[in-house]
């Protein structure tokens, strides 16, 4: 986990949003860093919220960044470079809204249901 000195804190919609490892390459071949992606989403967030507001949302996580040949894990092969995170992260701030979902299998999960760009 990144130390606090490696993080930046942004004020987004009146919430403090901590971005760890802001200089981490996300699209290394294009020179795009994590903070660039965050700033882009803040800039276009209202448009994205038009589609996502208050709807359960699954995160597609790429911890090593996106690169040529990168692939997402599946149920059959969980050795990919990325994965889907259905559940709300344990360290999510209390102000992050959630929705309780029941899957056809009977399993349940609390998923993020964004209501602001800060989420």
TrEMBL record:
Q: Which Gene Ontology MF annotations are present?
A: DNA ligase (ATP) activity
Instruction: Identify the keywords attached in UniProt to this record, alphabetized.
Output: Ligase
Q: What class of enzyme is it?
A: ligase
Q: Does the keyword 4Fe-4S apply?
A: no
Q: Which domain of life is it from?
A: Bacteria
Residue span(s) of domain DNA ligase D polymerase: 34-116
Entry EC no(s):
6.5.1.1
- Give the Pfam families listed for this entry: LigD_Prim-Pol
Question: What's the name of the protein?
Answer: ATP-dependent DNA ligase
Which organism is this protein's natural source? uncultured Blastococcus sp
């Amino acid at each position: 986990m990144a130390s606090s000195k490696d993080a930046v804190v942004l004020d987004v919609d009146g919430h403090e949003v901590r971005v760890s490892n802001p200089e981490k390459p996300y699209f290394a071949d294009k020179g795009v860093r994590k903070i660039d992606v965050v700033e882009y989403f803040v800039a276009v967030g209202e448009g994205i919220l038009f589609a996502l507001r208050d709807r359960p949302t699954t995160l597609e996580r790429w911890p090593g960044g996106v690169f040529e040949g990168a692939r997402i894990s599946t149920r059959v092969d969980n050795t990919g470079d990325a994965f889907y995170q259905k559940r709300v992260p344990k360290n999510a701030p209390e102000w992050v809204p959630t929705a309780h979902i029941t899957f056809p299998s009977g399993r349940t999960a609390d998923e993020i249901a964004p209501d602001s760009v800060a989420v």
